[in-house]
């Protein structure tokens, strides 16, 4: 069996990656502390419960499975929270990743696929972002991810660790078979919050800021379907297996939608009213984050096939109605 160590495999994106790995013939070994992940999302390979900062536990898992690669998803990922409690982000994301990277190098597991974020770019005046844009994060979440990118670069230079870094734009949608989906506790992301509001499971959605310098005053984001995103990870893994070396790729659809546009699409897809109110800006939010890169397409051969807002919302809605984790 060819094992891949998937940190955060019990989380939203990690669990979808495990499904994709299994379909591609690998055995995903989930390493997750289950603080924000769900045990019942681990369906495609074994679960090893442990913390990123627990070096002894990591060493034991590397020893037992001899994974050919690490896919590192485990992280705290809420922009708002990172502004209130940056220390948690630096400890969990940066220190935790450092411990993991050291354990991987020591275990001679030299292929590393890392989940980074477009939040590392920060504010850029109305440009489409490519991988060479300066990284000027405006929130602690983005800063923590940029720091991990730096650690990877250092460890590549000194220890020959090969890495592919994916900078995600806004990930949405769910497994179309609804085996797994997006569920955070607490939830802070736009699409699941909106579906809960549509369903009456929580109060009206609050739009965070209507005075941005955009056509309708609300923030613009580039949404990418989680299934397309994890497909890129399989291509990234093969890239490393083929010895193609270190590379950074944006993963986005290249199209931006405002919060109001997402609300409008959700109304159309679900055929239900979306209750919402308008509120102040959320600290740490950029005005516009849209990918302008074709590198993943050109070099990895990545062809997103589900990254329309309609499909993302329809798949998320299907999961929302059918899928449940015990909570
Ligand atoms: N957003 C919003 N209300 C919410 C949650 C999010 O208006 O309750 C907006 C947020 O300001 C951002 C976009 O929706 O412009 C996407 O936010 P999310 O938290 O889903 O992802 P992020 O862009 O922070 O990674």
UniProtKB/TrEMBL annotation:
Residues 4-252 form the NAD-dependent epimerase/dehydratase domain. Belongs to the NAD(P)-dependent epimerase/dehydratase family. It is an enzyme of class 5 (isomerase). It comes from the Bacteria. The gene is galE. Pfam families: Epimerase. Pathway: Carbohydrate metabolism; galactose metabolism. Its EC number is 5.1.3.2. Its cofactor is NAD(+). This is UDP-glucose 4-epimerase. Keywords: Carbohydrate metabolism, Isomerase, NAD. It comes from Pseudohalocynthiibacter aestuariivivens. It catalyses: UDP-alpha-D-glucose = UDP-alpha-D-galactose.
